[in-house]
Design a protein that fits this description.
The protein is mainly beta. Helices cover 6% and strands 32% of the residues. It has helices at 14-18, 115-118, 216-219; strands spanning 39-41, 59-62, 83-84, 94-106, 108-114, 123-131, 138-144, 149-155, 170-182, 190-191, 193-197. The termini are far apart.
């Protein structure tokens, strides 16, 4: 069939954060996963995170699927449904492609996997790729998993942000999740849900202007004396 459209959470450890931040950060001050390692939220429902979900803006497609288990199962918010790849219709590695109509900023991915339910269909190694189109995709990072059960959440980029807190977001048109191999060398794969999360929006402080003057002539008269 052709392509179709459509670790348990723990408190943040401050030791690694101190290596990047000037001021010490108490335990729990940084969001889970800020050190870069994937965090698994052991729930069926998507974790409530402060990052905006931008997956609804994209066109979703998969390398292959069995009837009734297509890409729509990745975004229906139903933990009982899942995308089921089809090795007879498409060779390995299987993959999910998310295409946006314009350039968007992506901070994290959250992927629902369940080894107790899916056994050898559960992905063991993922490759996250991105680019401006299908022909110029570049690998961003490799995620290795050991019998995951829950929402695997991680930053797509491992380059530290300018202020040292967490990691930079990436600006892309296309994201791709490549299932490099499954547990016990399973041929087909099950993925129960995917969330594409954008960067946190900076909140304007009470004394800040939402649209500040930038040029010298305007800034000369922005305050009344």
């Amino acid at each position: 069939m052709a392509s179709a459209s459509a670790v348990t959470p723990m408190p943040t450890v401050a030791v690694a954060a101190r290596r990047r931040l000037v001021q010490p950060v108490p335990i729990g001050a940084l969001p889970p996963g800020s050190e870069g390692a994937p965090v698994i939220y052991p729930t069926k429902a998507p974790p409530k995170l402060p990052y905006p979900d931008i997956g609804h803006l994209a066109k979703w497609s998969v390398s292959s699927f069995k009837f009734g288990f297509g890409p729509e199962c990745l975004t229906d918010d139903d933990p009982e449904t899942f995308w089921h790849s089809s090795s007879s219709d498409g060779p390995q590695p299987h993959f999910i492609t998310i295409e946006f109509p314009r350039k968007v900023s992506v901070q994290k991915l959250s992927i629902h996997l369940s080894y107790p339910l899916d056994d050898s269909y559960t992905p063991a190694n993922l490759c996250i790729r991105a680019g401006t189109g299908p022909v110029d995709m570049q690998d961003l990072r490799i995620i290795s998993l050991d019998k995951p059960d829950g929402w695997v959440t991680f930053d797509v980029c491992m380059e530290p942000s300018e202020d040292g807190e967490g990691f930079k977001h990436i600006d892309v048109y296309v994201l791709q999740i490549l299932i490099m191999n499954n547990h016990m060398n399973g041929k087909d794969t099950h993925v129960r849900g995917v969330k594409i999360l954008g960067p946190l929006e900076r909140k304007i402080k009470a004394y800040e202007e939402p649209f500040p003057f930038l040029t010298v002539p305007f800034k000369m008269y922005e305050c009344i004396r």
